[in-house]
Design brief:
This protein has eight helices and eight strands; from the N terminus they run βαβαβαβαβαβαβαβα. With 257 residues, the protein is an alpha/beta fold. It has an eight-stranded parallel β-barrel, surrounded by four helices. The radius of gyration is 17 Å and the shape is globular.
Length: 257
């Protein structure tokens, strides 16, 4: 089952209440709250307040989008203990983390092994709270190529670890679909946008329908539930989000019985 969502960092300049009202107006299912602006790590009372406001609006918390980068602990802006406690307060079922902060081509064997070990540590911690860990599928991390992401998931091999997925920028949709086929068994939530050919060239989501139909037709066959969350919109305008949300809901309606 696929559910519509919004990644709150799409609108960093809006308050929590404004993001919630925009999501409610759009009629989407839930919100992935970002840890940089809207729900900073360590403020558990605020996290609980955001959970309450989200639920009172008839929405779910889809994920906690942290900026924990699996660096050496002294280099992290916040401890994972603070990130996890905030996710618990928020009621997030999954915490998004980043697999390092450098291109996979620059990461030597020791660095990859360190990231795998750190992933095990935080996944064990999160698992005791019934929360999963998911990697951001992103450039300049160990998920920046299909081969590297696949090696990472195989090396981690943890029941509480998955990866989010988004179409890599500038690559043909057929290539993205083939990559999705390979990584699919580890894929949880989806970040949805239409950028082409670079991340600076943002278009209405409807313009990417041919590409996204390929991806969603396949993702809909996978077992389990996933949010498909809009992340960034053309010109950063709330009006564009409302248009994109209507597009996304129309697409997802095909897969609901």
């Amino acid at each position: 089952m696929l559910f519509s969502g919004l990644v709150s960092i799409t609108f960093r300049d809006l308050s929590v209440a404004e993001v919630i009202e925009l999501a409610r107006t759009a009629g989407i299912h839930g919100i992935e709250w970002g840890g940089d602006v809207h729900v900073p790590p360590g403020d558990m009372q605020h996290a609980r307040d955001v959970k309450r406001q989200t639920q009172n609006a008839g929405l779910t918390v889809n994920a906690y989008g942290s900026y924990y980068r699996l660096l050496p602990e002294a280099d992290e802006a916040h401890s994972f203990e603070a990130v996890l406690a905030t996710a618990v307060g928020l009621g997030a079922p999954v915490i998004r983390v980043w697999a390092g902060n450098q291109p996979s081509s620059d990461a030597d064997t020791a660095e990859r092994e360190r990231i795998v070990e750190e992933t095990h540590r935080i996944a064990d911690m999160a698992g005791t709270q019934g929360i999963d860990i998911a990697f951001e599928y992103h450039s300049n991390t160990l998920t920046d190529t299909l081969d590297s992401a696949l090696d990472l998931m195989k090396a981690v091999d943890h029941d509480h670890v998955s990866t989010f997925w988004q179409p890599p920028n500038g690559r043909p949709p057929g290539e993205n679909k083939a990559g999705l086929d390979v990584i699919a068994k580890w894929v949880s939530n989806i970040h949805c946008f239409h950028w082409w050919p670079t991340s600076q060239d943002r278009h209405p989501l409807a313009d990417g329908e041919d590409n996204w139909r390929q991806y969603l037709d396949y993702i809909a066959t996978l077992p389990g539930e996933r949010s498909v969350s809009i992340e960034f919109v053309k010109d950063g305008k709330p009006e564009q989000f409302l248009e994109d949300a209507a597009t996304l809901k129309r697409w997802l309606a095909r897969y609901h019985p």
